[in-house]
């Protein structure tokens, strides 16, 4: 009996000791998983040689049991992308992990995910005969060259994670492969996950190869391209994405200056416009950004006048600014007036300012007058003469205005500008001198240069309608001119839908002055009959009763 009790005590002792050893051999590791510097939800966490699995919630936290000496790594998986954290060198009970290699709050860039990284170049690794690197790099590179991205990616990821400074091609190729995955993704959640990975590749490239200004521009360009292509994106998400892109674009342009890429400059202006329309940016900031971008494109074109990318960028930036709603007269005056002395020393800058003021109908401002005089003094070109004509119109100096309009027309060869100059001279002659015949001749010349100008056709109709009483010798002959006026209003709305409302209003106004049926009967006329107007008009129209 005593022997049995002794054996029982011994067995109990052995069992307790075994349990104690087993308990001691296991360790609970906790931590937080981050993406883009924020706690990441939906990350699956597994330990090597452990059956446990944990998925992070909204706060990014995880808890997993490992066996020291046996568990070699912890694996973190998001959708179809997995990353391993080697436990060698990470023996603590709390291990935070950055899934994309971005900065962990309070721990600096890279965080725990950078443990075990080898920062040697490919030449150094080959010289050291690092077989792991050479094997993985060769496999990824061969598959990549064959455009077999599915086979290339597993090997690329191993090189990318452990040897991030081995070759900058890692980042070029990574971007290409993940852009392909984004474009092929069938659902938005997967697409968003790939976009996040793409952004992290750019961040990691900055960390190991610098070129921050250049890379941030490329990063933001792709972010806008892919993030905002989602047709179902909410306004709140769109606003947040635009703000994120703006931050990177702004920093990129500040760092790159005149070396900024054309696409980055254009997207920066487009994002600026979008944020203004969403109420997230002031009018003054939009104008200031436009000024910054204009200066950069001007510098680029000054270096190379044939730089097509810079020229296209300049045109697109101008277009975005002009359609932003921020470029009103008040904003332009507030922007340009303090800079006038600087601008006045540069002919091209003066022209640019005057064109901007002209587009926003800011030609009656004192700034426009000063700039026009200065430009004509420095460069008496067709454009400068045209601006001087406008200046004298404002001052009601008819003879000088007319002289400068004619000077501008004589010096100009561009058809679009000639149409504009002739149109304004016609309008001036009509409004100030009431010379219907001369005004009609000028508007006809405007139409010769731009046959589809709705506003010129409207003006021609107005000239005939207002000059009706100067034609013929009786009331009937006066009324026949309204047929011709309405002809031009109808033509205006056919060629230019933008003037349709104005044309319809004028048609309704002057149609009531058509002769009635009784008058037409006594004149021996019928509806639809051709009718010749002589005198200073000398055109043919169609008979119509009111």
Please render the helix and strand layout as text.
Elements: H1 2-25, E1 27-35, E2 38-39, E3 44-47, E4 53-55, E5 61-66, E6 73-78, E7 81-86, E8 97-98, H2 122-127, H3 131-145, H4 149-162, H5 169-184, H6 188-209, H7 212-227, H8 235-256, H9 262-277, H10 283-303, H11 308-322, H12 329-336, H13 340-343, H14 347-359, H15 366-378, H16 382-394, H17 398-411, H18 415-433, H19 436-449, H20 454-466, H21 475-495, H22 500-511, H23 517-522, E9 530-533, E10 539-542
Parallel strand pairs: 1-8
Antiparallel strand pairs: 1-2, 1-5, 3-4, 3-6, 6-7, 9-10
Helix pairs in contact: 3-4, 4-5, 5-6, 6-7, 7-8, 8-9, 9-10, 9-11, 10-11, 10-12, 14-15, 15-16, 16-17, 17-18, 18-19, 19-20, 20-21, 21-22
TPR repeats: 382-415
Keywords: Signal, TPR repeat
InterPro entries: CarboxyPept-like_regulatory, TPR-like_helical_dom_sf, TPR_rpt
Describe it.
The protein is an alpha+beta fold. Among the domains are: 115 residues, Immunoglobulins (Immunoglobulin-like); 94 residues; 113 residues; 52 residues. The protein is 62% helix and 8% strand. The strands form three sheets. Strands 1, 2, 5 and 8 form a four-stranded mixed beta sheet that branches. A four-stranded antiparallel beta sheet has the order 4-3-6-7, with no helix packed on it. Helix 7 runs antiparallel to helix 8. It is elongated. It starts with a helix and ends with a strand. The N terminus is likely disordered.
